[in-house]
Amino acid sequence: MKIIFFSLIIVLISFLGISFVESQIVPACPEPFLYRPTNDSVGDYDFGYQYINISQIKLPPPLSFLYNCLMPCQSLFFEKNSWDSFNKLVEQMGSVSFTCSVIIMIIYGPLMNRSFFKLDRHTMTVFCFAFSTFFIGVSDLMFASEGVDMVCPESHRYARQTDKTCATNGVLYQFGWLGSVMWFAFLSIDGFFRASGKKMNKMVFGIILGTIWAINIALSFGPMGGDQYGAYFVGQVNCWILVKNWQYGFFWAEVIISLAIGFVGICLTIFTLIRKTSDGNTFKNISPLILVFLLFCQYLYMIIFYGIINEKKDHYSNILAEQIGCIFTNALFAMKIPGVKSAGECVFNETITFSSQYAFLFFIRLLGIEIFSFYIMSKEALLLIKSSYIATMLGLGDKDAYDVELEETD
């Protein structure tokens, strides 16, 4: 009996990497997992540790340490080559989006726009949208600079708000993303005003301007009070809000409201354009309408995608747990542990599809590129450049060019 018991220990040592150090057994988990001794796996979650779920497997006492195996970072919801594709998308496309946002900010902002502080509704709205996508770009540049270490400070730990740059990255990402959707809503209203020829009182616009930014700031810094920023287990590459109830309260509720406003603005603009089809100015309002419609579709996709992810997160986790449990069961069966039966072939069951996740990340980074593509060659942009300080200093422009156009069309 002693010989059989000793042989069993030798098998465990060879497979799991258990070694004797000063007469003590040092437990280890099979790759890609990592053993972490703990008595509080729930509390460890707050520090970014994700333990595998194999509670369905009844382990003998000598192997109970296998319950304390950590998931690797980034998660096993996707294969490594998929994560590499997501990371590369954020790094490369985020940089392009950042550059596009900066260019629009320069043209529509105070550096070139003489009417900036006159609170011109259209140019200010475009600037604010680009300003929002600029912050998304900054958060992506942070990721590009630090790499995966920003969200995975250790090989088996997910970043939390207490980590060096995660909180900053999360706030910037939230501020830019939420700001973009709120200014999308106002961009749709601006389209209606431009199509109908209606004007907005500058004081009213100033109040709206301040209110939107105040709400955005409050909703971006609010989650910090609950230590909510961290590397999200699924769906994101950047740091963001961790708990879905906080996500709903500080982000998705505002997105749904903004989409509703945007939808109303789109419908009003279309209705106005239909009534004015004989107007020669109708065509110039179609391009902004196309942009707003595309943005609406993108934000709608984001809502649907994240809604499904959040509602099925436990389901996805259970699928992953079954796969991990299958691997561990077969490993124990191969070691001939008494009472353990083979689980058969471990088939990988897809959780979140690669294409849906890629599209989600793509659409967020597309925002800055879209605002650039639709407005860089617009009549307003060309007039702003013509009337800019630089153009007039070089004798190439007219400082009143945009104001004259504004008086004629707005």
UniProtKB/TrEMBL annotation:
InterPro entries: GPCR_Fz/Smo-like (IPR050949)
Keywords, in A-Z order: Glycoprotein, Membrane, Receptor, Signal, Transmembrane, Transmembrane helix
PANTHER family recorded: FRIZZLED_SMOOTHENED-LIKE SANS CRD PROTEIN J, G-PROTEIN-COUPLED RECEPTOR GPCR FAMILY PROTEIN
Keyword Flavoprotein belongs to the record: no
Family: Belongs to the G-protein coupled receptor Fz/Smo family.
Signal peptide: 1-23
Principal localisation: membrane
Protein name (database record): Uncharacterized protein
Top-level taxon in the UniProt lineage: Eukaryota
Residue intervals passing through the bilayer: 93-111, 123-144, 171-192, 204-222, 250-274, 286-309, 358-377
Subcellular location as annotated: Membrane
Membrane topology field: Multi-pass membrane protein
GO CC list: membrane
Coiled coil: none
Lineage, uppermost ranks: Eukaryota, Amoebozoa, Evosea, Eumycetozoa, Dictyostelia
